[in-house]
Structure formats: C-alpha cells, structure tokens
Amino acid sequence: MKVLLVTEKPFAAQAVKEIQKIIEEAGHVFEKIEKYTDKSQLLAAIADVDAIIIRSDIIDQEVIDAAPNLKVIVRAGAGYDNVDLEAATNRDVCVMNTPGQNANAVAELVFAMLLYVQRNHFDGSTGHELKNNRLGLYAFGNVAKMVAKIARGFGMPVYAFSPILTHDDLRKEGQYGVISVYSAEELFDNSDIVSLHMPLLEDTYRCVNYNLLSRMGDNGIVVNSARKEVVNEEDMIRIMEERPDFKYITDIKPDKHDEFASKFGMRYFSTPKKSGAQTYEANVNAGLAAARQIVAFFKNGDDRFRVNPK
Ligand code: 3PG
Question: What confidence tens digit (pLDDT) does each residue in 77-116 have?
Fold first, then answer.
C-alpha cells in the first residue's frame, strides 16, 4: 500500500523519520508532501495513494475524488472538521483521528498564552497573576482535562461544563478537581477566565455569543485553543468595545484578526500560526500513533478510532 503524509504545517523531522520507519517496516511505501502552497500539489500527490496521514489539511470532496485508491485517512490530531466525512463515507473511506496524543501540548499553550497576556506581553509593566482566578472549561475532553490538572498547580479553582457529559458523569471525574456546572450560562457566570475546548460541530458553530460573553464579570478573559468558528466574532468585538477590561486570546487567527488587533491592542492576542500541537513531543505522539493506526488498519481492519459511519 502507498501511504502519503500530507502536512502543510510539517511535523518535526525526527517524527517524520519515525513515521516513515513504521510504514516501511510494515511493508508499505511511504511518501510525503510538506509545506505545499497550492491544492493542485496535493491533488497530484494523492492520485495513487491508499492511505493519508494529515493534520489540519483540508480533505474535501475534490481531494477524495482525486484519490480513487484511497481507503483510510488518519488525522494526526484531535479535530477532524477539516475532513468531509460524508464524502469519505460515500466512497467507503475510513476516517480516524488520534485522540489525546497532542492534548498536553495544547493545554500547555493555553497557560503560555494566558501568562503572556496577563504579563502585558512582557513589556515591563505591572501585570496580573493567574492564582485564584476562576477558570471555566467549556467542554471536557482530553485537552480540558490536562488544562484542569495544570490549573491546580496555579491555584485556580476550575469549573467545567460539558455539552455531552451529564452533570453526574462530570462530577465523577473527581480526579481533576473540577466543579461541574449545569449549563454554558452557569459556566460564564462563574468564571474569570473561560477556556474553550469543544470540537467544531453544527451545534458549536459560533456558540460563544454575546449572551454568554456578557455574563462574565469584570476583567473577563476568553482563551480559545479550539477552533475560530466556535466564537461569534461580531459578538466578541461588541463585548470588547463595551467593556474595556475584556480580553480575547486565541491560537486560531480569527477572520476579523486585523479589526481585533487594531481596536484592542494588548487586550487581544493571536498566535501567528496555530501552535497548540506544534511541539516535538506532540508531533511524535500524534504522528506515530497515526502511522501505527494505518498499519493496523491494513493488517487486520482495526478501525477503533474511526469517526465516520461505516
Ligand atoms: C487538533 O485538532 O489536533 C489541533 O487543533 C492541532 O491541529 P494541527 O495538527 O493542525 O496543529
């Protein structure tokens, strides 16, 4: 089988070497296309492959149509909103992700961004500490769990709301020491800082809206390491215009980045390129997991991390 690694944002070179080794030792052919700048390069490279490993690379109907032999797509990471699942299912292509493999890297970045902004971008002026700030986690997957653990070290009380876990299930996650709340509204009511951890779904599209944002008290901060689309950008701009104390921190550049940057100065921060999972460790964890999942899929049909219906 031919396995193609497709990464516009490449993995660390050592991770790529190890991915190649796993694929080749299993008797498959390995190819890669990194830092491509045009979709046509991807369409050409994918023409005769059986499997692909991707990151946030867009795999739409056109890409799937261009790969008649394609049998499996592994998203080396958590979110798979970049893959057209329906197109894949219609062609009987299995789509998997590698849940949890890059979670620690993303969780650490949440605190890196918070510290950077609360210390005024290290400009020497007097900033703020994280200690005693109430942290609200919107959704409670692998990244949020890591964030909860780290937050305890900072001395932050942690609240959590999960749109999919019941209140009782969340309470059972006692090891993370979170205070479970019943609704997104209650979460924003009780948080000084809200950290977003939901996947991008129809239900979560622009779900962080004016109604929720306006519930936060003085000096509210929203930190987004999820997806730009979960925030209603017009509403975020409105609250930041009305409330000169409000801050928005994001690892995913908003569509209205220029407006945020010009209007809100240091109350707004966006990483120049999504950096959450961009550590050596996360590259190795997610990349090698993806390679092993492809080998197991071809060996015995193992599709335990499948995310699309059969
Ligand atoms: C994920 O969904 O796993 C993260 O957003 C990381 O995405 P990336 O692999 O494009 O950095």
Answer: 999 999 999 999 999 999 999 999 999 999 999 999 999 9
- Report the CATH fold assignment for 103-270: Rossmann fold (3.40.50)
pLDDT for res 128: 98
Ligand 1 cavity residues, CB under 6 Å: 9, 55-56, 77-79, 102, 274, 276-278
CATH of the domain spanning 2-101+278-300, picked from 3.90.76.10, 3.40.50.2300, 3.40.50.720, 3.40.50.11720: 3.40.50.720
Measure 291 CA to ligand 1 centroid, in angstroms. Answer: 16
pTM: 0.96
- Output the CA angle 1-291-31, nearest 5 degrees: 50
80 contact partners, CB below 8 Å, separation of at least 6: 95, 97, 307
**Cβ atoms of residues 191 and 217 within 8 Å:** no
pLDDT digit string, tens, across residues 147-189: 999 999 999 999 999 998 887 888 777 788 899 999 999 999 9
